[in-house]
């Protein structure tokens, strides 16, 4: 049966997830497009159900609803819908979930707002072998549709922990020997001067940078050397530069294997 009404309960629930407050209340979010849906299933993400315009679509063990193109276009948040989307349950993680042995690489998002930046950093963190991400209160919604698309599926690969108390989070990390390295235009060290073994790297707000708490708690303040006229780099570009240096050091130290299949 093809669902054609916007008043259908499944359609209404899915529609509500366009708003952050309902995503937070229901602990669910939407993903769109065949690549993201298949990556979610491949990664064993907790997909609750799939919506598709193709009556032949079938995924074993996943509830699937066939909807009209008109309904899907109303639910979609992209200009050219691919005819498939899914609702996924959020996975809740604690700080212990992102500790992997005695030599960790963790990313802290300290007040970032742009969903494109957030998603891109999640994707970069995944590629560079980061074990987990800490999102500080005040950071934008990682389940925003633009952030999800920018992550290119990496949202399903890496745990994200939301925290309200930043001081307590830093205390937790430092008790486990994890050094805090914060990015700052006031930094007095370059990435290649810092030992990134067992560290948490902090990236701040696009306009204001890191918080005063992060600055005071940082073991090192790092900045990227530049010789051109640009005052700074986009935060997502900065993350790629710094996390690549961390990966280089970790591979040299034998802590990272080859790319996963």
Label this structure with key terms.
60s Ribosomal Protein L30, Chain: A, six-stranded parallel beta sheet, 9 helices, 2 domains, alpha/beta, 261 residues, Alpha/beta knot
Structural account:
The protein is of the alpha/beta class and 261 residues long. The chain has two domains: 2-89, Ribosomal protein L30/S12 (60s Ribosomal Protein L30, Chain: A), CATH 3.30.1330.30; 95-252, SPOUT methyltransferase, trefoil knot domain (Alpha/beta knot). 33% of the residues lie in helices and 20% in strands. The chain contains nine helices and eleven strands. The chain has a six-stranded parallel beta sheet, with helices on both faces. Strands 1-4-3-5-2 form a five-stranded mixed beta sheet. Helix 5 (115-127) runs parallel beside helix 6 (145-151). The radius of gyration is 20 Å and the shape is elongated. The mean pLDDT is 94.
For the record, what is the CATH homologous superfamily label of the largest domain? SPOUT methyltransferase, trefoil knot domain
Give the % helix.
25-40%
Rg value: 20 Å
CATH fold annotation of the largest domain: Alpha/beta knot
CATH-scheme architecture of the largest domain: 3-Layer(aba) Sandwich
Strand content: 15-25%
Number of helices: 9
Shape: elongated
Major beta sheet, strand line-up? 8-7-6-10-9-11
Largest sheet: 6 strands, parallel
What is the end-to-end distance?
A: 38 Å
Structural class: alpha/beta
The CATH C-level class name of the largest domain: Alpha Beta
Contiguous low-pLDDT stretches (5 residues minimum) are none
Q: What number of domains?
A: 2
Please trace the helix and strand order, writing H or E for each element: EHHEHEEHEEHEHEHEEHEH
The average pLDDT score comes to 94
Q: How many extended strands?
A: 11
Pfam family, one: SpoU_methylase
GO molecular function: RNA binding; RNA methyltransferase activity
Family: Belongs to the class IV-like SAM-binding methyltransferase superfamily. RNA methyltransferase TrmH family.
Keywords: Methyltransferase, Transferase
